[in-house]
Design brief:
Elements (H helix, E strand, L loop, with lengths): L5 H7 L3 E9 L14 E10 L11 E4 L1
Antiparallel strand pairs: 1-2, 2-3
Length: 64
């Protein structure tokens, strides 16, 4: 199986953003009990996604 590149993964994704990691092993959502594989990221800009996703620019989200 060929290696997945950033470009091929980006084409497949429905939401692509550029962000800045704020906290490792953390979450800003209470439902995440296991924070070992989560990070809190500040969304700097949305590269690809529905218009509604632009509301996340400037906010911090939890990424797993």
């Amino acid at each position: 199986m060929p290696a997945k590149t950033k470009e091929s993964l980006s084409r497949q994704a429905r939401f692509v953003f550029v962000g800045t990691v704020q906290k490792l092993r953390a979450a800003n959502v209470a439902e995440f009990d296991d924070k070992e594989r989560t990070v809190v990221v500040h969304v700097d800009r949305v590269e690809k996604g529905p218009e509604s996703m632009s509301a996340y620019v400037g906010r911090e989200i939890t990424v797993m």
